[in-house]
Amino acid sequence: MTNPRVAVFRPDDGRLADAAELLRSLGATPVADPMLAVEPAGTTPRSDADFTVFTSTTGVELAADAGWTPGETTVCAIGETTAASLRDTGFAVDIVPETYTSDGLVSALEGSVDGARVELARSDHGSSVLVEGLFDAGAYVHETVLYRLVRPDEAGESVEKAAAGELEAALFTSSLTVEHFLAAATDRGVREEAIEGLNAATVGVIGPPTERTAESAGIDVDVVPDTAAFERLARVTLDDQQSS
Question: Are both 119 and 192 inside the same structural domain?
Answer without folding.
Answer: no
